[in-house]
Amino acid sequence: MSDSIKYLLDESQMPKHWYNIAADLPEPLPPVLHPGTLKPLGPDDLTPLFPMALIEQEVSTEREIEIPEPVRQVYRQWRPSPLFRARRLERVLGTPAKIYYKYEGVSPAGSHKPNTAVPQAFYNRQAGIKKLTTETGAGQWGSSLAFAGALFGIEVLVFMVRVSHDQKPYRRALMETYGARCVASPSSETQSGRAILAKRPDHPGSLGIAISEAVELAAQRDDTKYALGSVLNHVLLHQTVVGIEAMAQMEMAGDYPDVIVACTGGGSNFGGIVFPFLGAQLRGGKKVRIVAIEPAACPSLTRGKYAYDFGDTAHLTPLTKMHTLGSTFTPPGFHAGGLRYHGMSPLVSHVKQLGLIEARAYHQISCFEAGVQFARAEGILPAPEANHAVRGAIDEALRCKQEGVSRTILFNLCGHGHFDMQAYIDYFGGKLKDLDYEESELAMALAGLPSVAAA
Amino acid sequence: MSDSIKYLLDESQMPKHWYNIAADLPEPLPPVLHPGTLKPLGPDDLTPLFPMALIEQEVSTEREIEIPEPVRQVYRQWRPSPLFRARRLERVLGTPAKIYYKYEGVSPAGSHKPNTAVPQAFYNRQAGIKKLTTETGAGQWGSSLAFAGALFGIEVLVFMVRVSHDQKPYRRALMETYGARCVASPSSETQSGRAILAKRPDHPGSLGIAISEAVELAAQRDDTKYALGSVLNHVLLHQTVVGIEAMAQMEMAGDYPDVIVACTGGGSNFGGIVFPFLGAQLRGGKKVRIVAIEPAACPSLTRGKYAYDFGDTAHLTPLTKMHTLGSTFTPPGFHAGGLRYHGMSPLVSHVKQLGLIEARAYHQISCFEAGVQFARAEGILPAPEANHAVRGAIDEALRCKQEGVSRTILFNLCGHGHFDMQAYIDYFGGKLKDLDYEESELAMALAGLPSVAAA
């Protein structure tokens, strides 16, 4: 029996640069707007929130941006991460397709998130920042920033969406083990939190609210900045180590993807694996089909509007043009908490708008089904978010079987599910439901989009 | 700042053989006795429980035993595992010592246990076995055998100590995700389980009882065998991939350990990292100080008697000469469930008796303290069992600081603690206690040891 195969790069092959897709876009990104004036933002407008090094990356159009050596030193703990050919899964499916996956669950915090948490902590430390505030949904980002903060001696305060905070005490415990403080959001520690609690003391929270709280605190103090785990250009930039490595590993395997599949919440694991391949295509290289998989209960790419919107609920953040369900949209409480965001990364939205990628929405039960099938074949238990990518890849492989053709499928297994076992228990116990949002709520949220004159 | 360093072997350097310390022992192991006759056992006596390939390994005195290629293929998913120089931890401790750790938490099930679960499933599959029964305490072994069973198409039934079964639903869910069935022990599925439940329906269970249940079922059917996750010679043999790799990695680092530290429950992660170094020493190589760390609440090496005893409570297993607290001893419910066993591997007991290793017992709170310090410095959250090794290594490093000398310390970080977060929550909440056994209970259990004429 031929077994699954691991492709591992030598440490010397770990990327020295991140890849910036802004250099290769056929059209530039629409400008970011100031929340007060609705006019295009200058770099200085972002200084209350981010150190200048990150702001420069946010607006850069350089193709390659050097990864600082102290960041590479930390990356080396788990990078280059392995790429696997899932031959055991192929056999179970009886597909002629070749399925490869990049595994990002090998990081200490268990997902791709440390790829950006580490440089963000590094640049903030370099700028003399003492404290970082952030938000987290499922907890993968919060624990990654807690990890990075511990390494660089930065205090970390995490606003965790209340429903996740209460359902996932183990994620919170992981953040606390790393030395971070984790607060249920909405909280009484901020004005925006208190305003919401005054109206509804048992509010379950949302990523949009947690962002408002974190941004509010960061803006108040010079020694405190804000960190975001997805959506922004510099976050996706940092994640491109995933795709750059994957390109070298596919070359090791003597293969090249026909299809790349990744799940999308804010878009960072998607951009991370996809952009280096898409950039090569934009520069005249081989064309790749690219499929974004999103949850049917929070379908920004497939059902959202491509429009200017705020990143948070209290409208403290700048406005970006993106696929959005509206900043007041509250998605139902499905298990992939990392995908429960009303908006989508402007970069991912832009390439979707340009017709360079496809998007599909899945309900959660079929994703868990795929995750269990994957775990039994390949031994790795995926996070609920990653199960969306697994489902997408399996569906592509089954289509190959149906059509009797072999294609090379690559997907991003962005994290393990060790802290999401309650979701699996619910799945096995038949308690999982395929949740849907209310059409009327979506319509209302979309109707509430800010009216912005075309830039 | 000089960061922690990873030493990673090339796949081509993955061991092709396991190392069998029986070849280098200055005195042979005392014989194993039949539970009925109390006479030395022949290989045939073990055939109801194990396939012949494993029985041969159990009694072999060949120095090198080849790792079958299908086992190496599965090993390659996570092996060779990394060895790290913990420079960030060294800096936090301010020690002149060099601290290295071998990290076995990279396996799909999260610990060293798949190193033996995979070959055990392979040999059973080769012998046409359809089903394996086993026991588990903390759940690391049960989930590892479930993983291996899924890969080789073998049904797995796990008897999980009831107190762990009820406290750790997530470990159970992991086993079920891999397709195994997990039953709380004592159960009504076996005669030995029913006998205990009849006396005490709410019995919390113990590893000794769970072993009785698993052995009873395996002995009844030709297509069913039994698998053990520690203690036996062949299990420790399989774990030597850890130490063989570590030797090559220490050579990469241009260093050699003065001290090796590992935790001991049944002895398998300890034997795995220690025996290749100890064997080299026995063949005339450099002398290494070797320190076994055990829980003060279940201190077989430091407080047990070196005597013949049963491996289980119902006395269905053969008798081995080992350090034991008595098969009726029930340790208090501390959090490192993988170390809650009344006996110790005969091989580890033997080298202890020969004065080749030291042993120390620690209470749990100081071990969690060490684990949190390690997590904040190195980013990896250790399992409660592994925290004992971390504490031991930190204490050695602090002694170096006190004495103003540098020594090279190597320890085995045998697994991550992702499924043990409740223990960390209890630790942070001040709810953890340093448990002790009752001296009178230990005396009674030791008095009940079977009387066996000197072999």
What do these coordinates show?
2 copies of one chain form a homodimer. Chain A has helices at residues 52-59, 69-75, 87-93, 114-126, 140-152, 162-167, 169-177, 191-199, 207-220, 233-252, 268-282, 300-303, 346-353, 364-378, 384-403, 421-428, 439-447; strands at 5-7, 17-19, 64-66, 83-85, 98-103, 131-136, 155-161, 181-185, 224-226, 259-263, 289-295, 305-310, 319-324, 358-362, 408-413. The radius of gyration of chain A is 20 Å and the shape is globular. Chain A is of the alpha/beta class. In chain A, helix 5 links the parallel strand 6 and strand 7 (155-161). Chain A contains 17 helices and 15 strands. Chain A binds chain B through residues 1, 3-6, 8, 11, 70, 73-74, 76-77, 84, 88, 106, 108-110, 147, 150-151, 169-170, 173-174, 176-179, 372, 375-381, 418-419, 421-422, 424-425, 428, and chain B through 1, 3-6, 8, 11, 70, 73-74, 76-77, 84, 88, 106, 108-110, 147, 150-151, 169-170, 173-174, 176-179, 372, 375-381, 418-419, 421-422, 424-425, 428.
Note the main attributes of this structure.
homodimer; 455 residues; Rossmann fold; seven-stranded mixed beta sheet; four-stranded parallel beta sheet; 41% helix; globular
Strand content of chain A: 15-25%
Contiguous runs where pLDDT drops below 50 for at least 5 residues of chain A: none
Largest sheet of chain A: 7 strands, mixed
Q: Please give the CATH class of the domain at 5-14 and 67-110 and 234-447 in chain A.
A: Alpha Beta
CATH topology of the domain at 5-14 and 67-110 and 234-447 in chain A: Rossmann fold
Separation, N- and C-terminal Cα atoms of chain A: 59 Å
In percent, how helical is the residue content of chain A? 40-55%
Using the CA coordinates, give the radius of gyration of chain A: 20 Å
Shape of chain A: globular
As an assembly, this protein is: homodimer
- State mean pLDDT of chain A (0 to 100 scale): 96
Discrete helix count of chain A: 17
Instruction: Give the strand tally of chain A.
Output: 15
Summarize the largest interface: chains and residue counts.
A-B, 44 and 44 residues
Major sheet strand order of chain A = 1-4-5-15-10-11-14
CATH architecture of the domain at 5-14 and 67-110 and 234-447 in chain A: 3-Layer(aba) Sandwich
Class from secondary-structure proportions of chain A: alpha/beta
